[in-house]
Amino acid sequence: MERKNEVKLHGMWVSAYSKRVELALRLKGIPYEYIEEDLSNKSQLLLEYNPVHKKVPVLIHNGKPISESHIILEYIDETWKTAPKLLPEDPYERAKVRFWASFIQQQLFESILKLVTSHGEAQEKAAAEVIERQGVFEEGMKEYIAGGASFTNGKNWGLLDILMGSTFGAYEVHEEVYGFKLMDPDKNPLLFSWITRLKEHPLMKGLLPPHDKLVEFLQLIRRISHVRGAESN
Do 59 and 72 meet the contact criterion of CB atoms below 8 Å apart? Predict the structure, then answer.
């Protein structure tokens, strides 16, 4: 018997990339089975479904695997065409959203990764980089969520909301562990109010990692990065 819209997601509890896909599935109202992966002991299925990168997330739709979160998000939007759409219909508007999606990944997310895995002078430099790039992002988002709009797709979430929610949803935990103000309402009031609305939305309920578990995980990552930094000196 042919399977009809059987959806499975291989992910990891702490992976922002996995959370992006979960948010898109929730937004579209797509039922799915979630399969938690232990990346220190990867399942045979994960290795079969993503033999190139061997990473999460991997979406399985009717037995067919799709990997890489940004590719999965576009696949979801193109396969389930019902509203709300993740990307605008207009090609130019769609290109602008893709630009800012790339900015979140290549500029913001990567600079945050540097911040949490560095120490000393390198961490101070990474912190300054995060602040600078957040300022650029704040200005760019005024086109989408200024003037009373709750989200970048008006009353509904779009691609940028998904990326923002998955990237900064647990910002308080990062601030607690690293002692750095990741979301400053004085410097970036628009971003702060936006992430506050996103965190309060029903889509985010139960999605963010447990606070204490994430604190423990980030502290471990910090200790490991400090040891590696000391060994390289």
Answer: yes
> Cα(79)–Cα(55) distance, rounded to whole angstroms?
23
How distant, in Å, are the alpha carbons of 100, 115, 143 from that of 108? 10, 11, 19
Q: What span, in angstroms and rounded, lies between the C-alpha atoms of 88 and 151?
A: 13
- Partners of residue 58 on adjacent β-strands: 10, 67
134-165 per-position pLDDT tens digit: 999 999 999 998 777 789 988 899 999 999 99
Instruction: Return the ∠ at Cα 67 (arms to 61 and 69), rounded to 5°.
Output: 105
Q: Is the link from the previous residue into 57 a cis peptide, with omega within 30 of 0?
A: yes
Low-confidence ranges of the chain (pLDDT < 70): 1-3, 226-233
CA distance 109 to 174: 13
